[in-house]
Amino acid sequence: MSRQGAYELAQLPAADGRLRLAVRGRIETGIAQQLLDEIVAQLPQGPRGVDLDLSGVEYFDSGGGAVIIALRQRLQRSGAELRIAASTPAIDGFLDLVDQERLLEPAAARTPRPESVIAHLGGATLQVLSDFRELVQFTGEVVVGLWGAVRQPRRVRWRETWLYMERTGLDAFPIVALISFLMGLITAFQAAVQLTQFGADIYVANLVGLSIVRELGPLMTAIIAAGRSGAAFAAEIGTMKVSEEVDALTTMGLDRTRFLVTPKVVALTLMLPCLTLCADLVGILGGLTVATLGLGLPAQVYMRQIRVALRPWDVYSGLMKSLAFAVLVAGVGCLRGFQARSGAASVGQVTTSAIVAGIFLIIVTDAVFTIVFHYW
């Protein structure tokens, strides 16, 4: 007989080559592994089976059930069996709750079936329809939120709006200025290579001014905003979605669009045209650097040619594009943030998706504007 803490383990006279063991006392989770090790130590080599007497057990919990199942599995691998020779109604009722046959079945090797083409297309179609439905719903929420901000400006959370204006405008100015200056520099160099052959160096100002103001200024500023502001919006809202802060706002009856989306959209809509104007000026200065230092043109001649080449509509068209780009970048960033599911990986995925989708929509929208302005 072995006495270990709360239980007693005794070996009874054998019958028909089977090992007979009796357990008394308490079988609980804290001593389950100890009891199992002691029973296994008493197993002879190649036993025909084990008869377990549990009639003297006073307390039996999930640890006892684990001992029974582990011992049964061990005996089954050696070709023997475990039999409960005597028990109590409480233990019988507990063991009836466990599907032991299911647990003892060997795990069948499941080979994944390849997905058929039809199933793949169907799943992709359903995903596209779901994304389109979510896009339409979110667009409606943003439009209603912006209209409410126009009708009742006092309801806008201006403190957060000013904060986002600083992040999307003032903090972005250095990188926008640097990129715009280099774009003006590169455009002027490329134009000078061709125009110098015909003695038309003066028209470098025309080419730089029109390309920067109409296309490169708004486009490059919007792409930078997509990489900075759009990604930041998606990461911020995505983190709030993962930590269930967005659900908490909804539970408290607060409008998520008014609290999270409208300040971001308003801030970027106000700041992106300002950044575009700065980008236009810096880009023209980049062309001026090449014209004066590389082509020998006086600065006064370059600036006079800029005034001749540019019209007010050229500037207005670029600002119109920047307004549309601002709404797209902020809206896509917020939408992707709300699509975060769970975990840090999901936040990273929606942030990347916000950048890619934002740049794609910027290019498509710019192409549409270009076609419309050409025929208009």
How much is the radius of gyration in Å? 37 Å
Apparent shape: elongated
* Secondary structure: helix percent: over 70%
Structural class: alpha/beta
- Give the low-confidence spans: none
Structure description:
- This protein is elongated.
- It is about 70% helix and about 10% strand.
- By secondary structure, it is an alpha/beta fold.
- A five-stranded mixed sheet has the order 1-2-3-4-5.
- The longest helix is centred in the middle third of the chain and has 39 residues, at about 205-240.
Task: Please give a handful of descriptors for the protein shown.
alpha/beta, 376 residues, single chain, 13 helices, five-stranded mixed sheet, elongated, Transcription Regulator spoIIAA
Q: Quick gist of this model?
A:
This protein is of the alpha/beta class and 376 residues long. It contains 13 helices and five strands.
Question: What is the topology?
Answer:
Elements: E1 2-4, E2 7-15, E3 18-27, H1 32-41, E4 49-60, H2 62-77, E5 81-86, H3 89-96, H4 100-104, H5 117-151, H6 158-170, H7 173-195, H8 204-242, H9 245-251, H10 256-293, H11 299-309, H12 312-338, H13 344-375
Parallel strand pairs: 3-4, 4-5
Antiparallel strand pairs: 1-2, 2-3
Helix pairs in contact: 1-2, 5-10, 6-10, 7-8, 7-10, 8-10, 8-11, 8-12, 8-13, 10-12, 12-13
